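Most newcomers find our protein records easier to grasp once they have seen one. To make this concrete, we reproduce a full record directly below:

…
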Amino acid sequence: MSSLTKKSGWLRRVTAVAILGIGFTACGGSDDASDSAEEAANEEEAAPAEEEAAPTGDPIKVMTVTTLNANGPTYENIKIAAEIAADHINSNGGINGRPLEVIVCDEQFDPAIAATCARDAVEEGVVSVVGSFTYFAEAIVPVIAESDITWFGACCPISPSELTSPYSFNIGNQPMYAVGMVRKAVEDGCESINAVIVEGADAIFQPPMENAIEAYGREFNDVMIIPNAAPDYSAEVAQATTGVDCMVIVLSEGPFLTWNTAMQQSGTDVQQYGPQGNLNNISAVGAEEITDGNIISGMYPDISTAPWDDYRAALEKNNIDQEANDFNSLGGLGTWAAYIGFAQIASTIEGEVTAASFFEAASNTTNLDLGGMVPNIDFTQEWTDGLDGYSRLFNRNVVYSQLSNGEVVPIDNEFFDVGDLAMGIAPE
């Protein structure tokens, strides 16, 4: 990564206290009433939500950490998702009647600033760091843990502390989506498969991917480690598409656009399997024909499905430009899910909601039900018999979508547990 653009005001505070008058539910939506009596009953049930009192008292502070100003990938969608989630929670009474305050910390793709975010979280007295993504969580998690502050609901845990610290409560499950690609490719009948992994990601992704292919009694035709920011991937595409009918690819959105451009120019018919939020409508632009039917392996169902009714409504209510940022992504979906999960657990606490009381409540949560955003999660059951160093992956499920004429379309909402496959255990 080249030099970073550092700006003053890296710490942003957003307090959301607006009243929406919509029901606080992880899975909204309504069914057609069969008669007027049922309609009246539904209206009567909905009335209290519209009269929800505004939260009062000292705010419950949380922080979200991500990259906003950097000479590289940035995640404005995470910031926005955190803000509108807090707005949604506060509009429905807050947490036990108290407002939720969000502090967004921009670590600017700099580990030193990430460490400053951690210290600031302690100084601000935040209850938890919620729904964050950073490559520098190792500079944050050990620091906040000393003050009982949790790292809650990360979409994409990649650092040792995120994957092993008792203060880390992951909802997402990186690198399981890559294992899910292997599963789907094999079960779709791919006879010869190449693995393509961006450099720097191979350490975390390659071992479970190779375990998965070996579980089927197979091996990759080739494992290619490619540069992260090449101006042209024509040579790599030519190598990756030779002698195979399918590829499983770990690559971020921007490079995937360059990759797909080279795919379109090559005219290949090799089927691709890629990650949610990266192989998508943005990276398929100009390559709609060649990517048609490509499979997307993800952690969360598509944004168009019922579990995200409130999320979509919040984006629309706040007039969010959904063309400028991808909210149907690991960061966007994961941050919303993290905030809904945080509110759900915090609301069970009797007495003060503090870092210590939330840590205790989260540690004793046996059934976090997010209405289908992910399978129900039991935070009391570590993955101690799983991959070494991944004990805090509580959710090991994947779900699939596909590209159709350049647009992401859900295949279904069925979750598949690939934990055993990641360890090299063949599916039954």
The two ends are 43 Å apart (CA to CA). The domain at 11-173+306-363 is CATH 3.40.50.2300 (Rossmann fold). Residues 1-51 have pLDDT under 50 and may be disordered. The first strand starts at residue 11 and ends at 15.
